[in-house]
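DATA SHEET
Item: assembly model
Revision: 1
Owner: S.N.
Input lines:
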Amino acid sequence: MAGGRGERFWPLSTDQLTKPFVPLLGPRSLIQETVDRLQPLIPKDRVLISIGKAHEALARAQLPTIPPDNFIIEPIGRDTSACLGFCALHLEKRNPDSILLAVPADHFVGDPEAYRRTLARGIENLPGTNGIVFGITPERPETGYGYIQAKKPADSSAAWPVTRFVEKPDAVKAAEYIKSGTYFWNSGIFLWHNKVLLELFHMHMPQTHQRLCALRPLLAKRDTDAQIFEIFSSIERISIDFGIMEKAGGFGLIPAEFHWDDVGSWAALARALPADENNNIFQGSHAAVDANGCIVYSDAGLVAVFGTSDLVVVQAKGKVLVCPKDRASDLKQLVRALERPLETK
Amino acid sequence: MAGGRGERFWPLSTDQLTKPFVPLLGPRSLIQETVDRLQPLIPKDRVLISIGKAHEALARAQLPTIPPDNFIIEPIGRDTSACLGFCALHLEKRNPDSILLAVPADHFVGDPEAYRRTLARGIENLPGTNGIVFGITPERPETGYGYIQAKKPADSSAAWPVTRFVEKPDAVKAAEYIKSGTYFWNSGIFLWHNKVLLELFHMHMPQTHQRLCALRPLLAKRDTDAQIFEIFSSIERISIDFGIMEKAGGFGLIPAEFHWDDVGSWAALARALPADENNNIFQGSHAAVDANGCIVYSDAGLVAVFGTSDLVVVQAKGKVLVCPKDRASDLKQLVRALERPLETK
């Protein structure tokens, strides 16, 4: 899944070049890294790329080794339930008995081997559940994430039965969750038998399921783009978490063995990349003299920070951003202001 | 005079592209602005450009309307006394009775008309003095400038007789100087009868004068570059202030009617350019949201400051600098560090 907007990583990402397509954490883009780290567990001919029309060309260019037929082009963005329902239809066409592993294409994963081990454990534990969710052991009382409560199983190799999904808690609740040892961050990585997922749509999102059934025969025919667009765009705009996961039961949770971050802002790079001895994070050509706690990104020439603390400094796409780390999550405010006409001297 | 190094305005200026040649305060470079603002008082065919060998091509390219013979190429940098002695020799060749107006090519002048008016007053008052200095009424207890003490004349149109030159004072002294009303900043703009200047060399810098006399016949001959280099490079490395002005008497001072700044660092742009309502200074494409007291310079794409205070942010020559305003005067420290091998990821 490579949807989403581009404003959180301005000026590197934009609505034209959204987060999955930028080389945020290394020389390869996040979507390239996502496909890479699935290897060899999910061979490339079994990796489907769910992408908006606007980013199709970009996705194909960045992923030349993914077979051309594996790109699933969403006619319009309708959140993750529509996205995954549409993927389930495409997968059904290939093999009605397949399983669907849904992976966001814009996250950080620290240890690819542990990641694949965790996914494999999920696949092993899938039978007998309505689906598997992958939970991250919370490292801090994060109020920006969804949480999943689950019950520790007697058998340590088994999945944890999911008790409930909890949307973004306040700081007090989040601290309690950490203490309890039974709450996990919702990584957004899900696993279903494809048939079961379609059945869950049927039970919990009947209107969406109806639309999916209307779409099904169109996928096999030519020149149906306009019809597909019309039906798809009428699907309710809601996440899979709200639409299905919070309503249905019978899910199992596999605790992640890997370090994970959703990298929600420039400041989050500090959780995904190693720091120097002064707690600075660098990506690209840089110099730091008498600087600490800074995050410096450059896709071009040298960026020098001198005598500064706790700043985000980015040179990307010929533009420069400077803001304090603790304002990086408000970047929308700047991007909105930039959309208004600018004074330029 | 367009000598000097390039580190104070890194990354815009470098040792290859020194301060006089950068468009720091507007679309034209400081040396272009300097020549422009002398018009029509000093016609271009009477403007001589004193320049180091390394910057000759740059100077000629930036000043295509200055006659080619008007470029005086210093074989090697030997501070302002050698520079001005060498200029005096060249001027003597053209007209032994000329007057020499020495103007640094890297300063800010707020009001070109008042500037020319002030210079013209200097020229009127030159007869009967050993030279005219132009003094700036101090606006703050600056400890980085030289000061000139002078005595207010009864006739307000006359020059102020210079009492003494004072090198960079401490803050207490500087505050006293301001109060007194008889101290001025030394602008580095000087005026002499060319003959008198050479005589001052004879009296106060006899060794340098001897070298100048050895150079004199070489200027008229061909293929004397090597000889000129040898003699010139043996001249004492000392400023005209130390070498002559502080020793000799008989100088007059004309108080400047114009706003002036030597623009010694990025932070000084705040004294030379107008600020927005949040006290930000901009040059080039910029955006400021919730920012105040920042100095933003771009020779290329947009530079955005968001939620920041009192920073210098520069995008120039493909590089980026971020530092607090109050560290801008220490920029040498960064440039020195950059001369050492850099880690680049």
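QC remark: The interface with chain A takes residues 11, 282-287, 289-290, 298, 300-308, 311, 313, 315, 317-324, 327, 330-331, 333-334, 337-338, 342, 344-345 of chain B (CB under 8 Å).
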